[in-house]
Design goal:
The complex is a heterodimer of chains A (about 260) and B (about 260). Chain A is an alpha/beta fold and about 260 residues long. Chain A is about 35% helix and about 15% strand. Chain A has 9 helices and 10 strands. Chain A starts with 6 loop residues before the first strand and ends with a helix. Chain B has about 260 residues and is mainly alpha-helical. The chains are: A alpha/beta (about 260), B mainly alpha (about 260). Chains A and B meet through helix 3 and helix 4 of A and helix 1 and helix 4 of B.
Chain lengths: ~260, ~260
C-alpha cells in the first residue's frame, strides 16, 4: 500500500500550461526550464503546485562557477523547491568545443568519483535545500571505466550524504542493453538514499535500433517495476512522470500520472 | 615515454567521438578501441537527431506556428534522406553543420504553396538565429564576467558570427502574434528593418533592432581601429559611440581586445 505522503507528479510542460493550471490529481511539477516571461499560466502553476528544481545547473565533473551556483539558488527560491536535482553527467568537453546537449554519464572511475564527490559537496554546501543526483544511462560501455555504475553511485552517496533521484527507466535501459533482469540490476543500487523516483515510457528508436526514453505512457511492466522499486526505497518522497517534450500531449501526461497513482 | 591521458581527457575523447562524425571515422579514434564502434555510431546518430530537433523547434518556432498554413513542419527534415546524407560530416554544434541543417529547413519550409508575404524574411531571421548560436561556448567562468575597462587601451572587435539582417518587413512587430492563437496569418508591416543577431560567450542569442550607426560600428570594429578611428568611420560622437559599444558588448556582438 502506498504511503499517504508520497507525492505523485509530472514535469511542467509549458505548452500544456492551460491544462496543468486547472488539473487535479497532480501533487508536484518538476521544472526543467525556468518559466518564460510571457507564460500566462506560470502564476497559477507556482501558486498551486509544489515545484521541484530539475534544470541543467552544470556538470559536476568540474566545480560550478559562481554564476551557476547563484542561478541554482535563485531558481530554488523562486520555485520554493524542497530539493534541488542534478545529474551524473559529463556531456561537454572541458574546452567547450564539443557538447552533446543530452545527458551522458561520466566514466565510472576513481578520478571521476573524486571529482563528483568534491564538486557535489561544494554545491550542496551552497544550497539552502538538499541536493539530489540522478543516474544516467549509457548506451555503450567505455573500457576505461573501473567499476560498475551501482558501486560508483553507492560510494558517491556514502561520501556526500546527497540524496538519490532514481531514474527507473534509466535502470531498465541499462539492464535491457546488458541482458540482465531489471529487478536484479536494480537490487545493486543504493536504494536507501532514494528521495525521488522518475517513471517514463520507452519506445523503439530507429537510430538505436532498440528502446529508449520517450514522451510516452509507461507500460504496465514499467509501472509494476516502479511499484517494486518504491517498496524498496524507505526514504522516498516523490514519484515523477519524467516526460518533457513539445510533442507530449495532455492525454498522455494525465493518463500516465493517473496510472502511476493507481499502480503505486 | 608516452604520457597516459587522465580520465577527464578520455571522457573528452568519447564526447568528441560522439559529436564529431569525421573524427569518429578516423583511425586515430578507432585505434583506441574504447567502445563498441557500432553502438557508438548508433548513439551518435540518435544524439545528432536529438541535438538538431531541439534547435529547430526552438529557432524555427515561428515557422512551426505557421505549419498549419504552410503544411510544413520545420523538424520534418530530420527524418529525410537529405539529413541522413549530412550525418557522415556532421559535427554537433559547429557553425558549418548549423548552416547545413538550417539550409535544409529553409528549403523545406520555403517550398510551401502558401502565400505569406514575410515568409522569406522570417526564414532568413530564423536561419540566422540558429547559425549564430553555433560554435564553442564558455560553460563556466574562470574569471568574473565583466565589461571592458574603458581606461584600458582597448580596441573593439565584432565577435565572429554576429549577423546584420536587412529585412523588407518589420518582423519584430509580428513575431509575438504568431505564437498567440490566430485564424488568419497576422500581417507584418512592410517597412525596411535592420536587425542585429549576436551571441554571448555563454551561448545566449540576442536580437536587437539596429540603425545605420550600429551597422557601421559592427562592420568597422575589427580589433585594430581605435575608438577615435571608429567614431570617425561610423560618423558618431565618441560619447555616442561608447554607449553604442556598451550595448553591443552586452548583446555579445562586440568584444574588446587590447591594442598594441
Amino acid at each position: 500500500m502506498r504511503r499517504a505522503d508520497l507525492m505523485i507528479g509530472a514535469f511542467y510542460n509549458p505548452h500544456l500550461g492551460a491544462e496543468l493550471a486547472r488539473a487535479e490529481g497532480i501533487d508536484h511539477l518538476a521544472m526543467a526550464d525556468p518559466p518564460a516571461a510571457a507564460d500566462p499560466y506560470w502564476p497559477a502553476i507556482r501558486g498551486r503546485y509544489t515545484l521541484l528544481l530539475h534544470d541543467y545547473l552544470g556538470q559536476l565533473s568540474e566545480p560550478l562557477d559562481e554564476r551557476s551556483i547563484e542561478r541554482a539558488r535563485a531558481l530554488a527560491e523562486l520555485y520554493r523547491s524542497p530539493w534541488v536535482a542534478e545529474h551524473f553527467q559529463c556531456l561537454h568537453t572541458e574546452d567547450g568545443r564539443y557538447n552533446l546537449n543530452y545527458v551522458f554519464p561520466p566514466l565510472y572511475t576513481e578520478e571521476f568519483l573524486e571529482r563528483f564527490v568534491r564538486n557535489a559537496s561544494i554545491l550542496k554546501a551552497r544550497l539552502d535545500q538538499p541536493l539530489v543526483m540522478e543516474n544516467i544511462p549509457g548506451f555503450f560501455d567505455v573500457k576505461a571505466s573501473q567499476m560498475a555504475e551501482p558501486v560508483w553511485l553507492r560510494r558517491f552517496f556514502e561520501a556526500t550524504g546527497v540524496g538519490f533521484l532514481l531514474d527507473l527507466p534509466h535502470v531498465w535501459l541499462q539492464a535491457h542493453y546488458h541482458g540482465v533482469e531489471p529487478e536484479q540490476w536494480l537490487a545493486e543500487f543504493p536504494l536507501e538514499h532514494v528521495v525521488e523516483l522518475h517513471v517514463a515510457g520507452v519506445a523503439d528508436d530507429p537510430d538505436l535500433r532498440g528502446p529508449w526514453i520517450a514522451p510516452a505512457e509507461p507500460s504496465d511492466d514499467m509501472l509494476e517495476f516502479a511499484a517494486h522499486a518504491v517498496s524498496r526505497c524507505p526514504r522516498i518522497k516523490a514519484v515523477t512522470f519524467d516526460a518533457f517534450s513539445p510533442s507530449l500531449t495532455a492525454d498522455v501526461l494525465f493518463r500516465s500520472v493517473e496510472r502511476m497513482r493507481g499502480a503505486l | 615515454m608516452t604520457a597516459v591521458p587522465g580520465d577527464r581527457a578520455l571522457q573528452d575523447d568519447v564526447i568528441r567521438a560522439l559529436a564529431d562524425a569525421p573524427y569518429r571515422a578516423s583511425p586515430e579514434w578507432r585505434s583506441r578501441a574504447l567502445a563498441d564502434p557500432d553502438r557508438v555510431e548508433r548513439y551518435a546518430r540518435f544524439l545528432a537527431r536529438h541535438f538538431y530537433f531541439e534547435r529547430i523547434v526552438h529557432f524555427f518556432k515561428y515557422s512551426r506556428a505557421l505549419a498549419r498554413v504552410t503544411g510544413r513542419r520545420p523538424e520534418a527534415v530530420l527524418t529525410t534522406s537529405a539529413f541522413d546524407a549530412l550525418l557522415p560530416a556532421l559535427v554537433l554544434g559547429s557553425r558549418e553543420t548549423a548552416v547545413a541543417v538550417a539550409d535544409l529547413v529553409v528549403r523545406h519550409v520555403a517550398a510551401t504553396g502558401a502565400a505569406i508575404p514575410f515568409l522569406s524574411d522570417l526564414l532568413r531571421y530564423e536561419e540566422a538565429m540558429m547559425v549564430v548560436e553555433a560554435g564553442p561556448r564558455v560553460w563556466r567562468d574562470a574569471t568574473p564576467v565583466g565589461v571592458a575597462d574603458s581606461r584600458a587601451p582597448s580596441r573593439p572587435e565584432t565577435v565572429a558570427g554576429t549577423v546584420l539582417l536587412e529585412l523588407a518587413f518589420d518582423l519584430p512587430a509580428v513575431l509575438p502574434r504568431l505564437l498567440e492563437p490566430w485564424t488568419d496569418v497576422p500581417p507584418a508591416p512592410k517597412r525596411p528593418t535592420r536587425l542585429l543577431v549576436a551571441r554571448s560567450p555563454h551561448g545566449r542569442v540576442a536580437v536587437a533592432t539596429s540603425d545605420a550607426g550600429v551597422a557601421a560600428v559592427v562592420q568597422l570594429a575589427d580589433g585594430k581601429r581605435t575608438l577615435e578611428e571608429l567614431a570617425q568611420g561610423a560618423r558618431l560622437e565618441v560619447g555616442t559611440l561608447q554607449q553604442t559599444l556598451q550595448s553591443l558588448v552586452n548583446l555579445g556582438a562586440v568584444r574588446f581586445s587590447t591594442g598594441s
